[in-house]
C-alpha cells in the first residue's frame, strides 16, 4: 500500500502541478504574452477562456481513458495520461508568444490546453481507483487521501516556483521569459513520475473482473445505464470544489493584484498559507471519513461553502493581508472538507466494471461547470456589477452541491466488489 499510495500521490501531484502553473500564469502574465492587443479586462477574459478550454476537454479525456481503464487496466492508462499532461505542459513553456507567431500563438496555446485537459481528465479517476481498489475496506478514506493530496501538493509546488521566479527576476525578465521555467520543469517531473508508476501492479478489484471475463464492452454507456443518478448528482456534488478552488486561485489572484494593487509576490505568499490549509483539511477529513462516513462531511463542507461565498470578496476588499489570507484559506478549507472524502466517495458510488468511466466522467463534468465556467462568470459579474455579486454566485453553486449530496447515499460500508 505504501508503494501504491506513493504512486497515486506523486503522479497526481505532478499532473496538478502542470495544471496549476497554467492557472497561476493565466492570472499573472499570459494575457500579455498571448493577447497583448486586447484591453486588460478583455485579455484576462481571453486568458481565462483558454483556461476553460482545458476543463471542457476533461470529460472527453475521462471518457477515453475511462474506456481503456475499464477494459485494459488502470496502470497502463495512468502512464499514458501522465505523458500527455507533462509533455503538453512543457511545450507551453517552449511556445513563442504573439509577438513572434501572431494569431498562431494563442491558437497553439488552445491546442496544448486541450491536450492538457484530455490528460488530466484521465488522471483523477485512475489515481483514485489505484488507491481505493488496493486499500483495506476500513482504510479506503485514508489511502484515497493520497491522490487527493496531490492537488494541494502540486499547487504548493507551482506557487512556490512562481514565487521564486518573480522574486529573483525583474518584472521585465519574468514577463519576457521567467514564467516559462515552471512549465519546462515538467520534463524532469514526468520522468520521475514514470519511474514510480511503472513499478506498481494492477488493482485487485480490476484483476478479479478480468479473471471472470466480466469487463464492460462500452463502460461509459453502461455507467450511464446502471448509475445515472450517481453520474449526474456526483457531478453536481463536486462542482463546489472547483468553484472555490479556481475562483480563489485564478480570479482572486487577478482581482487582488490588478484591482486592489497588491504586489504579486505578496499574493503568492498569502496563497501558500491557504494551500497549507487545503492540504491539512484534505488529509484529516479524508481520514476522519473512515470513522464517521463520507456523506455527512461532504454535506458540512458544502453548507460551509454557501456561507463563505458571501464573505469572500468583502474580506478581500479590506486589503488587509491577514483577512485576505483568511478569505483564501476559508475557500480552500471548504474545498478540502469535500475533496478529502470525495476521493473514496465517488469511486464507491460505481460498480467495478464501470468505475473508472463513471467516477472519472462524473468528476470532470463537475469541473466543466465549476472550474471552466465559474472564473469566467465571477469575472463578468465582478466587472459588470460588483465582486460581491460574484461571491453570491459562488454561494449558489455551493447550494447546488449541497442539494446533490443530500440526494446521494452513504458509501463507506460498501464492498467494492459488490456495488
From TrEMBL:
Belongs to the major facilitator superfamily. Metabolite:H+ Symporter (MHS) family (TC 2.A.1.6) family. SUPFAM superfamilies: MFS general substrate transporter (SSF103473). The chain crosses the membrane at residues 45-65, 77-98, 110-132, 153-169, 181-198, 232-256, 268-285, 297-315, 321-340, 361-382, 388-408. InterPro entries: MFS, MFS_dom, MFS_trans_sf, Sugar_transporter_CS. It is a multi-pass membrane protein. One of its GO terms (cellular component) is plasma membrane. This is Putative proline/betaine transporter. It comes from the Bacteria. Its main location: membrane. It is found in: Cell membrane. It comes from Streptomyces genisteinicus. The lineage of its organism: Bacteria, Bacillati, Actinomycetota, Actinomycetes, Kitasatosporales. Coiled coil: none annotated. Residues 4-413 form the Major facilitator superfamily (MFS) profile domain. It holds the Pfam family MFS_1. PROSITE patterns: MFS, SUGAR_TRANSPORT_1, SUGAR_TRANSPORT_2. May be a proton symporter involved in the uptake of osmolytes such as proline and glycine betaine. GO terms for molecular function: symporter activity. Keywords: Cell membrane, Membrane, Symport, Transmembrane, Transmembrane helix, Transport.
